Amino acid sequence: MRTALVIGTGLIGTSAALALAGRGVTVHLRDHDPARARTAAALGAGSDEAPEGPVDLAIVAVPPAHVPAALAEAMRAGTARGYLDVASVKGGPRRELEALGVDMSSYIGTHPMSGKERSGPLAATADLFEGRPWVLTPTRDTDTEVLNLALELVALCRAVPVVMDADAHDRAVALVSHTPQLISSMVAARLADADETAVRLCGQGIRDVTRIAASDPGMWIDILSANPGPVADVLAGVAADLDETVRALRALQSSDEDKRRDGAGGVEDVLRRGNAGRERVPGKHGAAPTTYETVAVLISDQPGELARIFADAGRASVNIEDVRIEHATGQQAGLVQLMVEPAAAAVLSAALRDRGWALRQ
């Protein structure tokens, strides 16, 4: 791939453009808002000038509802040798594109499983896709050359290709992406009118659950409108669990010992099923889940503190697998939780104590 055109310079489109431009591909940028394309160009994602002729690959990075029209327009103009989109829903847009009567051999649907709570070109980074799954949904009509172009894009963005059927993809993302967004928003909505005293008690648990609730509602309306059935199916299952759990909790309030016992069993059941589901979530780099030991370190809210911790861990030859930060309410201090391989926990703890860090058990 030598040339590419990115149509839509939001978070995903600009991130892909940055990755391609950084690896020597000549990238052209187009957006319905020229100012966004100029912003992406100023960030080094390519040129907002139109290409002089057909490019190797056109990447359509617009909301799902606009994908078919944008693709059909580009195809009819002979913009590229191959065309793909990066929308988070695949089945519906593909069927709409087929109905428009375009040549489907030059098209492949794709979806990089990566994103942020923030949107727009200023949120983009060239490493957004590194190590992340990038779904490809070829059909029997997809030309081999187009599939190879898509695989090259995934490789240049340092993502991991995953081939799926389009409708199977939509059911999968309903479970692992779209439903979690709605549930996160529902939990966060409980905080909107909560008493300030309760809100001040927020810890890492509520921050973890509500992190993605900060996402742009307009963007998610577009996504959910393109995949409502599979999301509703998953939510129906969650609703059934909620109903059972509510009944179990009410039973725990009973003065009848048998009812309390049944209530405890109902709550335990959903918690244990949650344990079983959580264990299936892939770990680092998509490998099997790994149980890490946590080394908790008290830090002050001063510049360079995190860098010092990581540097001290490096001197001890310990790799930090994951990190979480819990801020102390109303204080200029916090707790950093460093996740490491079990065998490294004692080594890291000793090294940090030797360098003057205060650890919490």
Describe it.
Keywords: Oxidoreductase. It is an enzyme of class 1 (oxidoreductase). Its EC number is 1.3.1.12. The structure is a single chain. The protein has three domains: 3-164, 3-Layer(aba) Sandwich (Rossmann fold); 170-278, 6-phosphogluconate dehydrogenase C-terminal like domain (6-phosphogluconate dehydrogenase C-terminal fold), CATH 1.10.3660; 293-360, Alpha-Beta Plaits, CATH 3.30.70.260. Helix content is 47%, strand content 17%. The protein has 13 helices and eleven strands. It has helices spanning 11-22, 34-42, 67-76, 91-99, 144-156, 166-192, 196-199, 204-210, 217-225, 228-252, 257-278, 305-315, 342-354, and strands at 3-7, 26-30, 55-60, 80-85, 107-112, 133-137, 160-163, 293-300, 322-327, 333-340, 358-360. The protein is globular, with a radius of gyration of 24 Å.
What is shown here, in short?
It contains 13 helices and eleven strands. It is an alpha/beta fold.
